[in-house]
Amino acid sequence: MPHPLIPELESLARTILAGLGFELRGVNLQTHRIPMTLQVLAQRGDGVDISLDECASISAPLDEAIEQAGLLAEEPYVLEVSSPGVSDRLHDDRDFRSFRGFPVGVSFLDAKGQETRCQGLLLERTDTELLINLRGRTKRIPRDAVLEVLLVTPSDDN
To answer: Which of 47-51, 78-82, 104-108 bottoms out in mean pLDDT, i.e. has the lowest?
Structure first.
């Protein structure tokens, strides 16, 4: 279950990054670390990974905005700004277009509301569904039922 502050932290980070000419690619709050760690993944608007200097230029204004908002005032934290590089998790339309034909693992809720997993080749993600090739057959999964799509290493039993 994601931390309850994640939506607010994402919104704040998205605003700050946009003002600096970058895009937010993800926020992760690791509360099991001491001090807890807030990871913010950013990239340039053109999709290119950011440099170490750009991470540093994002860090100060983002940290200041978090402090002013009082979102993490209860505990000390470390802010890590980095580039996502190639992630295993597919996030946006660009990821789904880029990795068409690649093996993916999909977690989704079936018709009974049970979490189900399958692996196959990514065909397409439309506005309403995710299409996966499972051993030559197209599986259609309602997009709102999809919990996660990950790039995977194909296994022999697929």
So the answer is: 47-51
Domain 93-151 adopts which CATH fold? SH3 type barrels. (2.30.30)
Architecture of domain 6-82: 2-Layer Sandwich (3.30)
Residues 90-123: tens digit of each pLDDT: 878 888 988 898 889 999 999 998 999 999 999 9
Token pair 């299409």 is found at: 131
Question: Model-level pTM?
Answer: 0.55
Rounded to 10 degrees, the C-alpha dihedral 34/43/59/53 comes to: 110
Token output for 148: 């996660």
Give the separation between CA 115 and CA 109, rounded to whole angstroms.
5
